[in-house]
Amino acid sequence: MTTLLQLESLYSFEKTRRDARWLTQPMGNGSVKEYTFGQAMDEARRMATYFKSLGLPEKSNIALFSKNTAWWLITDIAIWMAGHVSVPLYPTLTAETIGQILDHSGAKLIVIGKLDGFAAMEPGIPASLPRVLTPLAPKTTGEQWSDLITKHQPMTESPTRPADDLATVIYTSGTTGVPKGVMHTFKTMTESKGFMEQLRVTADDRMISYLPLSHVFERTLVETGTFGVGFQVFFADSLETFVKDLQRARPTLFVSVPRLWLKFQAGVLDKMPPKKLDRLLSIPIISGIVKKKILTGLGLDAVRFAGSGSAPIPGSVIAWYRRLGLELLEGYGMTENFSYSHMTRPGQVQVGSVGEAQPGVQHRIGEGGEILVKSPCNTTGYYKQPELTGDLFTSDGFVKTGDQGEIDAKGNLKITGRVKELFKTSKGKYVAPSPIENKLLTNSDLEQAMVAGANQGQPFALAVLSLKARNRITVGEGRAQLEAELKKHIDEINAKLDSHEQLETLVLVTDEWTPENGLLTPTMKLKRSAIEKKYSGQVEVWYRAKTTVLWA
After folding, report:
1. What's this model's pTM, rounded to 2 decimal places?
2. Which among 16, 74, 341, 364 counts the fewest CB atoms within 10 Å?
3. Domain 6-185, CATH number (from 3.30.70.20, 3.90.870.40, 3.40.50.2300, 3.40.50.980)
4. Which residues contact 135 (CB under 8 A, 6 or more apart)?
5. What is the per-residue pLDDT for 319?
6. How many CB atoms lie within 10 A of CB 426?
7. pLDDT digits (tens, 9 = 90+) for 210-236
């Protein structure tokens, strides 16, 4: 990957690949809009002229509130060309959180794009804050993108930014409390080029952008990757059209979160029972045909590298995809190091490990088993919060991740839990929930799981059933059979746990945990305190039931 900073690299593509297709945007009516490098940069230059015309103070914060679209990327470029700083907002935030971020960041303008449920979020945007509405934005007041690019001429100069200039402030979703603004410069963003180098990414590759660009992981792999390498980017239209969008893109690089990999697997197994699939995959000639058919149906037949991040993925799922010819690489990182920390290498996947440190990254285990990381992409600090910035770093510049882990003799990192997720039972014993949750999720009938039990005699687990399991319980003796299988699963897990860690009961909840209902962060991590609060009134009843598997 080139070592040019973002703007310099884009100016180069604008000249050398002007007519090459770059961004493919579904328009919601079955059609798509294609942008070449020249067309996208023309619109970026026109928007940069508009931003400059506003006379905002130098390096003003401009909020970017949208689901992933071509205009998300074009807006970010225009903000930087105009000499300002982008502040992305997750597209599923509550009005309260939106208000907090806009107030804390001091945003001078907000660019609003494609969103669902905007009516509930709009009260968080001050009426006095100027708005720009990109194509596909909800109907509301503000300057229309199409009008602005018609009225303003493209910026003729090609301004660059110093490497240490602030490029973006990314507010972390957080599992509790008010979001913190993580500052990244053009340098800390560009240093993540190691991802592209490790995976040998070229301009001939393709990616589909659907994980939130407001999150650092997508920002690193998709935005920073395409700005540096120039590969083609496709966008998804909706959840309903996602497989069709994948089939259009036929990505060569595809990264997702464990929940989606599990949903893909459940969808396949719903059409082809596991025993039948196992039998077909064991027949040499038939096996290749079946693998091709499944991956083509998912739109993943052209994938060179597939990745999973954000949360642990069960080893059984990695093994299942490997049988289909798709090796899932796992990564580890955080907003504070622009996701550039650890990754498993092709051909060297070790289940339970997130791999070695990336080139240029140092790691060690600190007090209490905490993972400490020094990355060339380490943040310069938290916006307007110097006291929190001081608490983030060790005296020699390592980020305190808050995760617990172990490093083996080969340098592979294993995540074992969260420093602050430990809870104490009434017996005075500490329990680390994450390793037990990982064991629970080796059962494909469970899609999500959380272990709790602070101040109780024994821990308990909450779980959301997979689609496959939900379908099972509606047929004949399916419910009783599922309960028996899950009881056996719990017994096997408990047999391998210390006595104080053994689960008292597994509670199956009937609702889903999503970012929209406040039980997951936008990056699909458990909001433990919110989940515990939701079910707190039932906990004593569950314990009194003295049953291994319960229905909430």
Report:
1. 0.82
2. 16
3. 3.40.50.980
4. 27, 69, 71, 113, 145, 146
5. 85
6. 11
7. 989 998 989 999 999 999 999 999 999
